[in-house]
Design a protein that fits this description.
The complex is a heterotrimer of chains A (332), B (427) and C (234). Chain A is an all-alpha fold and 332 residues long. Chain A contains 13 helices and 2 strands. Chain B has 17 helices and no strands. The longest helix of chain B has 35 residues. Classes of the chains: A mainly alpha (332), B mainly alpha (427), C alpha/beta (234). Bound molecules: adenosine-5'-triphosphate and magnesium ion. The site of adenosine-5'-triphosphate (ATP) has 10 residues of chain C, from helix 1.
Chain lengths: 332, 427, 234
């Protein structure tokens, strides 16, 4: 039974956590693409920046003597999200809006977002160096263990408090987004603009407002994703830079512009990565007496070093097989 | 237009001299070689983006391929490898690879014997899985064996210039595959696909210790021209030897660039270039005019990638070390985009100017930022606020920031670049 | 004072002007029809009126106020609505959501308007939860018109509402347009089915090369031999 527990810990829990991160990031990417029609490369760095904002706020809260049972980094998240939203709006106003106004092509905005990436990276490294930081210097990282001796396992199912919180945050964010997009006037206007921007304008929809709302949501989600990721692992300047590519893969696999597709794509890629590097021999071992062949020591689909490439391989396959994504994405 | 270009070139030359004045001749000779190697790569991107309108965010992958090529060709032979079972095992792995490839090709052709639809798809998927297992079953033990006996395969011990050429050839091969996969995609998708493929290349080269020594790095790689040590052996003072050796390398590089530049300019001025522009500016019309858009785009993508492969080889041979772990998208992909955008997409003179200008900016951002931080720090100490900690490491991070500022400013205020494309009206 | 007054409007898409002095005026009780050859600038005229094309000289007034170069989100609350020629529904959204989007600028309760639209186009009520992209061409045109009516406009601009529809649907759409007009909404529309449309138009405008060629009542234009010969196909 320990093998099963190992599988649950290594594949199901890790995959859910990774999928949550990817989904949160991919929603932002896909919303921005739906409304503004460009691939926002700086999204990963907006995540990192959100993580650092929360980190600074957490330091401040600790120095004020605020102690709670939940991680301080999580406690300050709402405030961090508000700050991140203002920065996101500022980035749009300072860098993207002038280009849009000039009627620049989406690809110009894509390149501009590389510029924004470099600026954010540079600033973060300027202030924080390239060291890595932990949210848990002043408080313990709680670990949950579910005893499984009932089914004959000696090892428990294990996950950490940040991982649990991350899944909760993702579920709440997805539900909130769903209700926003399907029930609220502004949310519907957002879908309308993603569907047909010209007609949205003709209908009298305040497109500038929709653009702002998009940045509000994307900025807030990026901050949440970055903070939750930093709580789970640790905070580094290149925290999300490496993760932005699987996030884009998730958004494309789900169909750019499709929020639900982004969520599905995020979990698909998250699970694919964890399953690809899982050593399946472990699951076969209990049956070693009945199997007609000897079980190899290592039965992982790809070696662990290639974990990140799994996302790209999936991406390439999807692009070849169905270029607009599994859920038909926007194509302009 | 020509006057503007000349003025700008004089300006950049003056900047280089100024840097030389402060940093010394040895440093500036280093800077020049590197910036011209970057210029060669920027030229490649200019061909792809400026001429062809093809988005390539995977430059890093081509540089790594080129770097590997020159390492493999010019590094001395590893006798321990050649005398072991390694070559045989690699041969078997190659056979397994070919067998796998045949399997996949065969499955794809099943429609010719009447097997189509879902059945064929299933067969193709199974063929891929089988090919993967067969290949892994041979390459894994081969890799483990080589790493245990002899460490890695070593090089061929041939002339580095052959290595540069092989860098171009290998990059062309990779570009062919990448192009076949990705060129049909829309720009955003192409951007992600190319960056994804370059990350795959990085992961492969970084982890294939048997092939590249991975993070153990390979050095010293030889130069095509005399090294400083060679000149010192001939009796030259140490300080001079570095300058003259680098100038020798620079001369070699400039010859290569001049030849390539001449060929590219000619091609662009001719019917091929006109067709490329037509395709770039009006995809649909060009396609309906009966021009084979896809093949032309593949050509332009391969041509640009060849220059990137050669440039990647030049950089590795000049640096004398191949370190697959040292490649980063910022330093090896995005910086070239800044160069081409700032210089002027679609104009080769602009691309070269942009490359040298941005490379110099990139290099001097560090010391300049250090000076600024020192001044601020001194001021802050005088005020009793304390000094800025870790000035050196912070200053080096300013390069990335400056690069970001430069590209965003350029996009906003000079979107056509310093030396814009010359739009020739064809009749 | 006419409801809308387009005076000597010159404008275009940035290059050479497409409109070279267009004059149109319409009362709220009118059905105005613009006809003319392809590329005459008919669609461009509607777009200029709706702030989607830059007007470089001349003026446009609506309900007594100047609206030259005003943008749609300002025009819709003033009582102007536009149904473009193509891509005029949100294909990924349900019929009802499409209609709601038409009421985006309204802050009040729009349920009575919604009922009114469903009354006018009963099939839409039937298909209210279906995606607009899944409807037939004629039904889409109804969604598009319904969407435009949701803002309770005083003037409805229609660009070729009958384009691509079967003759049966053309008739039905025209009947609805007349009905909408009867309920107090002014109409200004571009039509290719010129003869048919002019038959019920109270005002007719023939445009060519971005200029008025003929102006009059619908009946006058049909009767005019020159118009008939050059623009109505004999
Ligand atoms: N978005 C645009 N950008 C540039 N030029 C345009 C644009 N739309 C239309 N034009 C040009 O403006 C001119 C008038 O076009 P317009 O669409 O107003 O014609 P129209 O009278 O509606 O014709 P049709 O009967 O074909 O709909 C045409 O020459 C067309 O090429
Ligand atoms: Mg028209």
């Amino acid at each position: 039974m320990n093998e099963l527990i190992f599988f649950i810990n290594k594949v199901l829990i890790s995959g859910t956590v990774l999928g949550s991160i990817y989904a949160l990031g991919a929603i932002g990417v896909t919303l921005i693409f739906g409304i503004l029609r460009f691939a926002h490369f700086a999204h990963g760095d907006m995540m990192t920046m959100g993580g650092f904002i929360a980190f600074l706020l957490a330091l401040l809260a600790t120095s004020l003597g605020i102690v709670t049972p939940i991680p301080t980094g999580f406690l300050v998240l709402p405030l961090a999200m508000v700050i991140a939203v203002f920065i996101a709006l500022g980035i749009d106003k300072g860098f993207y809006a002038p280009l849009r106004k000039r009627g620049a092509r989406p690809v110009t905005l894509l390149i501009a977002s590389i510029g924004v990436t470099l600026i954010i990276q540079g600033l973060i490294r300027l202030f924080f160096g390239s060291a890595s930081y932990s949210f848990f210097d002043n408080e313990p990282k709680e670990i949950f263990q579910i005893d499984m001796s009932a089914i004959g396992a000696t090892r428990p199912i294990t996950f950490t408090e940040p991982q649990l919180l991350m899944v909760i945050v993702t579920v709440v964010a997805v539900l909130a987004l769903h209700f926003f997009l399907t029930r609220s006037r502004l949310g519907k206007a957002m879908r309308a603009m993603a569907d047909n921007a010209d007609l949205a304008q003709v209908s009298g929809i305040n497109t500038a407002l929709v653009v702002r709302v998009t940045w509000v949501i994307a900025g807030a989600l990026a901050c949440a994703a970055g903070t939750m990721l930093a709580l789970d692992v640790s905070l580094k300047p290149d925290l999300a830079f490496n993760i932005v590519l699987p996030i884009f893969a998730a958004a494309i696999v789900g169909g750019l512009g499709q929020s639900y597709g982004a969520i599905a794509g995020g979990f698909l890629i998250g699970f694919a990565e964890t399953m690809a590097v899982f050593n399946w021999a472990i699951l076969l071992r209990p049956f070693k007496d009945v199997l007609p062949f000897e079980i190899p020591a290592d039965l992982a689909i790809v070696p662990t070093e290639y974990k990140l490439t799994v996302a790209f391989v999936i991406l390439v396959i999807v692009l070849l097989w169905r270029p607009t994504g599994i859920f038909k994405g926007a194509s302009s | 237009m020509i006057r503007r270009a000349l003025t700008l070139y004089f300006g950049v030359a003056a900047l280089v001299f100024a840097v030389g004045y402060f940093m010394g001749t040895a440093n500036v000779s280093l800077l020049l070689v590197q910036s011209f190697a970057y210029a060669l790569i920027a030229l490649g991107l200019n061909i792809q983006w400026g001429y062809g309108g093809l988005f390539n965010f995977g430059i890093m992958g081509f540089l790594m391929v080129g770097g590997f090529a020159v390492t493999f060709v010019s590094f001395p032979m590893n006798d321990a490898f050649w005398q072991s079972e390694g070559p045989m095992m690699l041969g078997r792995a190659l056979l397994a690879f070919l067998a796998g490839a045949l399997l996949v090709i065969g499955a794809r052709r099943l429609d010719r014997v009447g097997i189509t639809g879902k059945l064929r798809t299933a067969a193709i998927i199974l063929a891929w899985i089988a090919a993967y297992i067969v290949y892994r079953s041979q390459i894994d033990p081969a890799a483990a064996y080589i790493e245990a006996n002899g460490g890695w395969i070593g090089g061929l011990g041939l002339h580095p210039l052959l290595g540069w050429a092989f860098g171009g050839v290998l990059a062309a091969g990779v570009a062919f595959i990448v192009g076949r996969i990705a060129l049909g995609l829309r720009t955003d998708y192409l951007a992600i696909a190319t960056i994804g493929i370059s990350e795959i290349i990085r992961a492969l080269l970084k982890n294939a210790d048997w092939l590249t020594r991975g993070t153990l790095t390979v050095s010293p790689i030889t130069w095509p021209t005399p090294l400083p040590q060679d000149l010192q052996a001939g009796g030259m003072p140490i300080a001079d030897s570095f300058i003259w050796a680098r100038l020798g390398f620079l001369a070699m590089l400039l010859v290569v660039i001049a030849v390539i530049f001449f060929l590219v300019q000619r091609a662009y001025g001719g019917p091929w270039g006109r067709m490329m522009r037509a395709i770039r500016d009006n995809h649909i019309a060009a396609a309906s005019m009966g021009k084979d858009v896809k093949n032309r785009q593949l050509e332009v993508f391969i041509l640009g990638s060849v220059l990137m492969g050669i440039g990647g080889a030049v950089l590795v041979s000049f640096g004398q070390i191949y370190d697959p772990g040292a490649y980063q998208p910022i330093n090896h992909t995005f910086i070239f985009w800044v160069m081409v955008i700032v210089g002027g997409a679609g104009n080769n003179w602009g691309a070269i100017l942009g490359a040298v200008l941005i490379y110099v900016t990139w290099i001097i951002s560090d010391p300049v930022a250090q000076q600024v931080f020192r001044a601020v720090s001194d001021f802050s100490v005088n005020q009793g606020w304390g000094a800025i900690p870790d000035i050196e490491s912070r200053a080096s991070q300013m390069r990335v920031f400056v690069l970001g500022i430069v590209i965003t400013l350029a996009l906003r205020y000079a979107p056509k670049g310093l030396i814009p494309e010359v739009v020739k009206r064809s009749s | 004072m006419a409801l809308v007054e387009i005076k000597d409007v010159v404008g275009g898409y940035g290059g050479a002007p497409i409109l070279n002095g267009v004059n149109i005026s319409i009362e709220q009780s009118d059905i105005g029809v613009i006809v003319g050859p392809n590329g005459a600038g008919k669609s461009t005229t509607l777009k200029a009126l709706f702030g989607l094309v830059k007007v470089s000289s001349g003026s446009i007034s609506f309900a007594g106020g100047d609206i030259t170069n005003a943008l749609p989100d300002k025009l819709v609350p003033k009582g102007l609505s536009f149904v473009p020629q193509e891509k005029n529904v949100f294909t990924s959204m349900s019929v009802e959501e499409n209609l709601e989007m038409g009421a985006f600028t309204r802050k009040d309760d729009f349920s009575t308007t919604l009922d009114w639209v469903y009354d006018m186009f009963p099939v839409l009520l039937e298909k209210r939860n279906q995606k607009a992209g899944e409807l037939s061409g004629g039904q889409r045109q109804m969604v598009a018109m319904g969407r435009a009516l949701m803002s309770q406009p005083r003037l409805l601009l229609l660009d070729e509402p009958s384009a691509g529809l079967s003759p049966r649907y053309v008739l039905e759409i025209f009947e609805q347009i007349v009905k909408i007009n009867k309920s107090g909404v002014g109409i200004l529309m571009v039509e290719q089915n010129a003869r048919q449309a002019l038959a019920f138009a109270s005002r007719g405008f023939v445009l060519a090369n971005g200029q008025n060629r003929f102006t009059g009542t619908g009946a006058e234009l049909i009767a005019d031999p020159d118009v008939a010969k050059s623009f109505l196909g004999g």
